[in-house]
Specification:
mainly alpha, 4 helices, 70% helix, rod-shaped
Amino acid sequence: MSEETTRKRAARRFDIRRIIGGLFAVYGVILTITGLLDGQAELAKAEGVRINLWTGLSMIAVGIAFITWEHLRPYTPPPPEDPDDRP
């Protein structure tokens, strides 16, 4: 594997869009499950709206959007500086 390929992989691995998208998706799944399992007391607090379910589904959608954005427009790191070109 070349040095350029290694740099590109490292840049994509730590792309902030991937990290934020993954966190949104994970928390969205947790909230969705919580929303599906909410009892009558939680529904009464929210006036009959399954707020955890809707918030979880929205967070999953945002997470998918971030991850899709990262795949459609990947970050390409700038080429390394040549030490001989410095002033």
